[in-house]
Write a structure and sequence with these properties.
Order of helices and strands: HHEHHEEHHHHHHHH
Number of helices: 12
Radius of gyration: 20 Å
Mean pLDDT: 81
Helix content: over 70%
Length: 257
């Protein structure tokens, strides 16, 4: 656990690094992820302006970005406060995202140009190589998102908008997945190898299933880490087990062989 002095040093360094609304949104996003800003805690504009040495316009743009990401809620005439995001809500978001990314992989096989497929293969090889070399999980996630963005280019504009919308809602959970990747877990790489093979064969069904399995892996890891850091669960609904979707779909794959 970081000491109070170390925490103050980190906060001061973060404050000095802020020069834009995007910078401020990034710092606040990290603090929410680290549970330094608790659910329902108010984020007062005056305090943020003073701490980070920026104007209200920058603070308001940063808060709007965090609201779009689902991290905070902005209440008229009251201000902004940290959202009490539950594990259940995150679980459901990844379920939707898995479906959309499966569609993106399918469309890439059916509609993607040969040049586009080659770019995806190059990026997948690069990601697998970086993973084997032990690069930080954040870099792995950046490459994987670039690959999915390339896949989505083959989808309709409406599908692309849906993918981007759900991506924004789950973007702030990427660091949780990065923690899992950095912790020497098996990771989603076997699923990525299946995506690669399916792209080469232009097998839309296999590519779609493998892409969904990548997201099911992320779904389980994010839920696991959120629970380990202090569960945010709706009291009126049971928590779905992160392992069930992965196991259920793996079994379904086996039956199809």
């Amino acid at each position: 656990m970081e000491s109070p002095a170390g925490r103050e040093s980190t906060d001061a360094a973060e404050a000095r690094s802020v020069a834009s609304a995007d910078d401020l949104a990034h710092v606040l996003r990290l603090r929410i992820q680290r549970s330094e800003l608790a659910p329902d805690e108010w984020l007062r504009e005056v305090r943020l302006c003073a701490e980070f040495g920026v104007g209200r316009s920058i603070v308001r743009r940063a808060l709007r970005t965090l609201a779009d990401d689902g991290l905070i809620e902005i209440e008229e005439n009251r201000g902004a406060r940290v959202s009490a995001t539950t594990v259940e809500e995150v679980f459901d978001l990844y379920e939707v995202r898995a479906a959309l990314y499966g569609l993106a992989a399918r469309f890439a096989c059916l509609r993607g140009s040969d040049a586009a497929i080659r770019r995806m293969l190059v990026n997948i090889d690069r990601m697998l190589s970086d993973a084997a070399a032990g690069v930080p999980g954040e870099q792995i996630i950046e490459i994987s998102e670039a690959i999915f963005s390339e896949m989505a280019q083959s989808a309709s504009l409406d599908a692309q908008k849906m993918i981007e919308a759900v991506r924004r809602k789950t973007r702030f959970h990427f660091s949780y997945v990065a923690l899992a990747i950095n912790a020497n877990t098996p990771g989603p790489y076997e699923y990525w190898r299946r995506v690669r093979a399916a792209l080469v064969e232009r097998d839309a069904d296999k590519a779609s299933q493998a892409a969904r399995d990548i997201l099911y892996f992320m779904q389980g890891e994010v839920a696991r880490i959120m629970l380990a850091r202090g569960p945010r669960v709706r009291e009126d609904a049971p928590l779905p087990s992160p392992a069930v979707p992965i196991k259920r779909r793996a079994s379904a794959n086996t039956n199809r062989r």
